[in-house]
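Inputs:
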Amino acid sequence: MPNILAIYGSPRRRGNTATLLDHAVQGAQEAGASVEKIVLRDLKISPCLEIYGCKETGRCIILDDFQRVYDQLLACQGLMLASPIFFYSVSAHTKMLIDRCQSLWVKKYWIDRVPYGQGELKRKGIFISVGATKGKKLFEGPLLTIKYFFDVLDMELSKTLLYRELDFEGDILKHPDYLQEAYEAGRDLAMAFRP
Ligand SMILES: Cc1cc2nc3c(=O)[nH]c(=O)nc-3n(C[C@H](O)[C@H](O)[C@H](O)COP(=O)(O)O)c2cc1C
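Outputs:
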């Protein structure tokens, strides 16, 4: 049974990205995956303090809820990450998690000395995001961030679901087609791990 981690990066519990991610989780579960959910707003995760306490072992030395997430990130086969667009970036909750994964960057590139671009991508994940405006470049910043985040996780970014013009809580419910796409993305991710 594939083990998939679903990370909710919005401060809104029932916001647009959370609803999309719920559908992706349902799709993955119905395709036979075991899904662990992480709601970042419920965790106490410090920002990266740039002290490089991780440089000996690749493990961050700040003792907070990131320690458990770190183990979950290493153990999962698949990842589903959802974040709203905040000032053309991911949410602060999401960014704090990503920055703490500098410990994994240190492990991969300083300790294990993997040449850039030569890590084996054994795992896969998807990224879900939503913004209020129509901006052509709305997702450009976060997509670069996510690309390099997935790189440190040795994960292929197999799908992105990016939706514009959704602002208020519940706006997503007017788009059953988007919810169906999220369901299918979760299902397809789980099915990708079938032998
Ligand atoms: C702090 C903050 C910053 C935001 N910045 C942007 C932005 O740069 N571009 C945009 O299109 N929407 C922006 N939004 C709107 C959110 O992306 C939008 O409301 C989205 O639907 C929220 O998703 P959620 O319900 O999953 O939290 C911002 C909202 C907040 C609260």
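Remarks. The chain is about 35% helix and 20% strand. Residues 176-191 form the longest helix (16 residues).
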